[in-house]
Amino acid sequence: MEVGDRTRELLERCRQGDAGAWNQVVELYAKLVHSIPRRYGLPTADCDDVVQTTFVALVTALGRGDQIDRVVPWLATVAHRESWRIGRSRSRALDLADFESVAEPNPDVLRGGEDEQAVREALGMLGASCRDLLTALFSVSGEPHYPTIAAQLGMPVGSIGPTRARCLEKLAAILANSGICPEPTRSHPQ
User: Fold this and answer.
1) CATH number, domain with residue 30
2) How confident is the model at residue 69 (pLDDT cuts 50, 70, 90)?
3) Same structural domain for residues 9 and 87?
4) Alpha-carbon span 70 to 57, nearest angstrom
5) Span 114-133, mean pLDDT?
6) What is the pLDDT at residue 67?
């Protein structure tokens, strides 16, 4: 989406320090920016922080003289990155419930806090790429946004599904070895 003449004019006036133009830009794009952290399931205060950080980044970019020809994707990218950063810092305390479907745990074996700690430890044993992918996929409420996750992790969108399957199998095997879950069954042929 190319910047329209009105937006281009507003951004130029913002560069020149016009507070009225800045207020109009914020009014035009605040709902868009605010919708992104909400999709990540962040609490209201964190959503507000993402909005503020995103618009501060826009002011900074304009102050540097950056040419922003596609303001909507630019704002969305900044908001996604900030939402991801906040969500990732919160995901350090993942709940076991986020991973219940990973390896079909045996409900007779799950013992609360001990097992949650075992899942956290198993995640730590996966290695950075699997841990980051599973955290990104399971730490947000609602459906994960694959293009955003792919961009953040530097991987093709089409490889998320197969990589996810391999990572889940590794996690299930680690959990099975620890006695938390039954042995995993192979979901794809070798």
Assistant:
1) 1.10.1740.10
2) confident
3) yes
4) 15
5) 75
6) 80
Domain harbouring 133, CATH code: 1.10.10
Residue ending a domain, among 68, 91, 114, is 91
- The token pair that represents 15 in the structure block: 């560069």
Return d(Cα 77, Cα 85) in angstroms, integer.
12
How would you classify residue 4: left for phi > 0, otherwise alpha for psi between -120 and 50, otherwise beta? beta
| Burial annotation 90-103 (CB, 10 A radius, 16+ → b, else e) | bbeebebebbeebb
Mean pLDDT of 142-148: 76
Task: With cut-offs at 50, 70 and 90, classify the pLDDT of residue 110.
Answer: very low
| Residue that has been written with the tokens 């590794």 in this structure | 170
Q: Which residue carries 């006036």 as its tokens?
A: 13
**Is pLDDT at 143 greater than 80 in this prediction?**
no
Domain that holds residue 136: 94-177
Report residue 185 as tokens: 């069954």
Residue 156, class by beta-carbon neighbours within 10 Å (0-12 exposed, 13-18 middle, 19+ buried)?
A: exposed
Domain termination residue (choose one: 91, 124, 152): 91
Cα angle: 15, vertex 16, 21; to 5 degrees = 75
